[in-house]
């Protein structure tokens, strides 16, 4: 049975931690703290230089919903072309219509811009009106992977839908379970859903190197500390990989 553990990273150091844990695949983004946005060219090139990991690149121009204007779509098409030329292994993205359906036409435009790169439909899927309709549309588009929490805040909460999606996909598309994935959760989810592909960040919160600290001033979202760094931890990834390997072997 094929098992996959994908690590979501937004820095070179996190990518190095994923490689240290012998991960095979990463999703590269920026700003993971807000759910991830498109990474910059320099970040991609640094990760490509320092690791030999399979790199799937997130295309998401901003925080918020997945309904984009013409300028954002143009940006996403240019990024798809750029990352294909830079040597990305796959694109991770999703676009919705205002009515909550998958925007098939605009997704086709991105797939065309990527000229044959593999595609993952990301958690825009979890905001779709009809998960099963979106599943069939993804298959028709030739998308290889759907990243989903089962339309809940965590994969464990969404386990019922995840199981149904895995059954209805019939191997036509990889169902990649994400959100709240830990070693303990992986074991239970494999048993319940039979899904063997998982997506996690394995993050720890590290203290800033700053000694002088200005209090009462926020550079971004209020409530988030300016002096905490989110980073992937190799031990967390290694532990999850061992659990996944073990339960897959048992099955």
From TrEMBL:
InterPro entries referenced in this protein's UniProt entry, alphabetically:
CutC-like, CutC-like_dom_sf
* UniProt xrefs under Gene3D superfamilies: Copper homeostasis (CutC) domain
One Pfam family name from the record?
Answer: CutC
Q: Which GO terms describe its molecular function?
A: copper ion binding
GO cellular component term of the entry, any: cytoplasm
Q: Which SUPFAM superfamilies match?
A: CutC-like
Chief place of localization:
cytoplasm
Keywords on record: Cytoplasm
Q: Where in the cell is it found?
A: Cytoplasm
- Has the keyword Cytoplasm been applied to this entry? yes
Say which family it is in. Answer: Belongs to the CutC family.
Q: Provide the protein name.
A: PF03932 family protein CutC
| Species for this entry | Mediterraneibacter hominis
Gene name for this UniProt entry: cutC
């Amino acid at each position: 049975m094929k098992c996959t553990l994908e690590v979501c990273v937004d820095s070179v150091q996190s990518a190095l931690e994923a490689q240290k844990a012998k991960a095979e695949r990463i999703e590269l983004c920026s700003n993971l703290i807000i759910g991830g946005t498109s990474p910059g060219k320099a970040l991609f090139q640094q990760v490509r230089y320092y690791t030999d990991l399979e790199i799937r690149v997130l295309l998401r121009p901003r925080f918020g919903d997945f309904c984009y204007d013409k300028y954002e779509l143009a940006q996403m098409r240019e990024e798809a072309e750029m990352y294909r030329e830079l040597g990305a292994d796959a694109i991770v993205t999703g676009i919705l219509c205002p009515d909550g359906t998958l925007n098939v036409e605009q997704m086709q435009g991105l797939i065309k811009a990527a000229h044959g790169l593999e595609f993952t439909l990301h958690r825009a899927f979890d905001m779709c009106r009809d998960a099963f309709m979106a599943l069939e549309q993804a298959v028709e588009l030739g998308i290889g992977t759907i990243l989903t929490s089962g339309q809940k805040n965590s994969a464990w909460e969404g386990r019922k839908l995840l199981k149904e999606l895995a059954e209805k996909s019939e191997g036509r598309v990889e169902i990649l379970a994400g959100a709240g994935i830990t070693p303990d959760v992986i074991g239970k989810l494999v048993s319940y859903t039979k899904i063997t592909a998982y997506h996690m960040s394995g993050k720890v919160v590290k203290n800033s190197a700053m000694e002088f600290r200005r209090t009462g001033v926020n550079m971004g979202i209020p409530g988030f500390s300016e002096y905490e760094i989110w980073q992937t931890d190799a031990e967390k990834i290694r532990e999850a990989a061992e659990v996944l390997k073990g339960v897959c072997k048992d099955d």
